[in-house]
Predict the 3D structure of the following.
Amino acid sequence: MVLAAGRGERMRPLTDREPKPLLRAGGKRLIEYHLESLAAGGFREVIVNTAWLGDMIEAALGTGKQFGLSITYSHERPAALETGGGIFNALPLLGSAPFLLVNGDVWTDIDFGALRRSPPEQSLAHLVLVPNPPQHARGDFLLKSGLVSEGEGVRLTYSGVGIFRPELFAGCEPGKFPLLPLLRKAIALRALSGELHQGRWYDIGTTERLEALDAQLSGTN
């Protein structure tokens, strides 16, 4: 599942006329990098959730055939349901098996093919963590012996990429809600595992960071 429903407030005015996943860097739409990487990693079925200007995303990507994928859309109307609510809304499309989740507003060289597996036994989810970027210096979670936790220490940043079991959402109700409380519940159960990615990863959260990524991918910086 690729998360593509966000409004992209910090990237206005660009996102006033075009949804964030369709913005370009290196001559290619941001979401296209994910779709190409998913196809290269052996994935064939992808769910894309949409809200703000979602029809533009569906018009641009179509069925996904050009990427070697079959794309199904989970439309959130009248407004986005946040990360947790958006995933829960798409569960009927995702089925009962573990699924890979990719945040649509990051760029990364994470090997999605290497993540084509179930989370470790007893884990409700498995997160890919990265070293903290300058804009998020405090990080999100600790990683020790393969388990993700909170607290003081050397923290890392959640990359927006992970493997999730549908059971993580047991007891949830339809509507708008964040993902973090569910991750914290899994932490309390010692059921949240993780790994560290030391490669390239960029959070495209502002126009300045989009421009910087575009310069790198275009070879002009």
Q: What stands out?
A: The longest strand covers residues 157-164. The two ends are 32 Å apart (CA to CA). The longest helix spans residues 82-94.
